[in-house]
Structure formats: structure tokens, C-alpha cells
Amino acid sequence: MSRPTGLVASKGIELLTWGTPNGFKASILLEELKDAYGLQYTAQAINIGQNVQKEPWFTAINPNGRIPAIVDHDNAGLAVFEGAAILSYLTRRYDRDHRFSFAPDDDDYTRAESWIAWQHGGLAPMQGQANHFVRAAKEKIPYAMQRYVGETERLYGILDARLADRDYVVGPGRGRYTIADIALLGWVDFLPLTTVSVAQFPAVHAWLRRCRDRPAVQRGFAVPSPSSISALKTDEGEAAAKSQELKKLVDQAKEQYGYKYTSP
User: Fold this and answer.
1) Max Cα-Cα span within the chain
2) Distance, CA of 84 to CA of 88 (rounded, Å)
3) What span, in angstroms and rounded, lies between the C-alpha atoms of 118 and 172?
4) Tens of pLDDT along 40-69?
5) Which of 98, 69, 95 is nearest to 82 (CA)?
6) Residue 152 has what pLDDT?
7) Dihedral of CA 202/263/86/113: which sign?
8) Domain GST N-terminal spans what residues (predicted)?
């Protein structure tokens, strides 16, 4: 895969992304819109490990230097960045039948906004910090590990309670699949990186399987390349040993600081 140096499309949606929980928000919705309406898009892989997202051509599209970002060549080259904003824009402009969203005068529109904001401002940053201090930080800091893993667990407890008698996060009756679900999918699927098992939250686990059965979700998780991480997979060999080692460190940190799971 050659290193991107600029935009390559001249029409339709151009997606600039990488295989991360935030990146999957855009790719999953675009795949759903392709199935529902025939919407086509072009994807470019932005390797964040090589800091492609920090290059001037990319920061001209997203000044924050983060993925995902989209450019709508059919709307005067409008650039949209931040996953929540991309979900909102794509459904407002292209989900004309509200198959994955709600009409603005529907109270579920506001409920969906609330859950997307909850994910954007709570679950994602807390789980992201848990991932960092458990996996990436060179120094294993017990307080930081138990703090962020614990907060991640608390937030998943809230989501589990929400889904206890529902199939999807928002919508009448047992709910229906919308961008309120799509916003969460990548993060839930990456939960094992924190050493927390999704099986700890049975309603969330069932919801993830339900969503993962959708062909567009499966394709979206493969953009720009298939993901090797999934909460529905079981680690084997060296990966399993590493996960167990990290979980032991997290459990020791919880014990050291007297952590007790509570939610909310």
C-alpha cells in the first residue's frame, strides 16, 4: 500500500481512515449506506503509525491531525472530521429514508444524540486511556491502570443496563439499529485491549453479536484492511499469554487501590 500524498477522488465521498474504533464509525456507516442507497465511496489508508495524519495535506482537511476524516467531492469538497460529526453529516445528507437515523423532529433523534455524545465524551476517551496505560505505556503505572480500566468497566455497566431489555441502543420498542449503535461498535469490539472481557456484560455481548452479523458491519471492520482484534475472538498462543500477564497487572493494581466495581 503506497503512502498517500493527497486526495485521489474527484467525486463522491473520500474516506481517510485507519483500523481504529473511531475509524470504523465512518467505514461501517458508509458500507451501510452503500447497501441501502448505492452510495459509493473511495477509501485511503492513513497509517497513523507513520504519522501520515500529521502531514500538511492531511491537516488541511483535519486541522487536528486525526482519523477519520471525509471529503464530500459532491458537496464542494466539504471536509468533515471527528467520528460523531461524520455520522451526523452522512445521515443528514444521504440517509433520506432515516434507515440508520431519525427525523430531527423525532424525540429519538435527541436520544441518539445523547448516546453518541456519551460515547464520544465518556466511553471512547476512558477506554482509550485504559488501552494506553495497559498496553502502550513503557512504565506500568498501577494507579492509572486501575483508574481507567475501572472507569471503562463502569461505563460498560451503563451500556449493559441500557441493553438489558433492548436489541439496540435507541428507538421505539426494543430499539432499531442506527448510528447510535455504529458509534459504539469499534470501541466495544476493541474492549479486550483493556483486559476487560465483553462477556462480563451479557447484554452488550449479545448486542455486539447481533450487529456483527450484518454484512455491512463486517465489511466496515475490514476498511482499510481486515482487523485482527475482536471481542468475539479468543486470543491464542503468545497473544493469550500477553493478555493474561496484563490482566494480572491490572488486577494487582485494582487490589492495591481498593477498586470495587460499581455502575453507574
Assistant:
1) 57
2) 6
3) 20
4) 999 999 999 999 999 999 999 999 999 999
5) 69
6) 98
7) positive
8) 10-98
Distance separating alpha carbons of residues 12 and 115, to the nearest angstrom: 29
Percent of the chain's residues with pLDDT above 70? 100
pLDDT of residue 1: 66
Question: In sequence order, what are the residues at sequence separation of 6 or more whose Cβ sits closer than 8 angstroms to the Cβ of residue 140?
Answer: 133, 249
What is the Cα–Cα distance from 41 to 11, expressed in whole angstroms? Answer: 9
What the block records as the C-alpha cell of 209 is 453479536
The residues, any chain, with a CB within 8 Å of residue 107's CB and separated by 6 or more, are none
Strand 41-45 and strand 78-81: pairing?
A: unpaired
R_g over Cα of the chain: 19
Q: Output the CA torsion sign for 14, 18, 19, 21.
A: negative
**Model confidence over 99-109: pLDDT tens digits?**
999 999 999 99
Distance CA 1, CA 4 (A): 9
Looking at the DSSP assignment, which residues form a beta bridge with residue 15? 43, 70
Exposure string for 143-164, b = 16+ CB within 10 A, e = fewer: ebbbbbbbbbbbbbbebbebbe
Query: Which residue, 11, 150, 114, is CA-closest to 71?
Result: 11
**7 C-beta neighbours (distance < 10 Å), count:** 18
For cell 465524551, what's the residue? Answer: 121
**Nearest residue to 19 (alpha-carbon basis) of 190, 202, 144, 138:** 190
Q: Torsions phi, psi of 79, nearest 5?
A: -100, 135
Q: Which strands form 69-72's sheet, in the order they lie side by side?
A: 41-45, 13-17, 69-72, 78-81
CA distance 194 to 247: 8
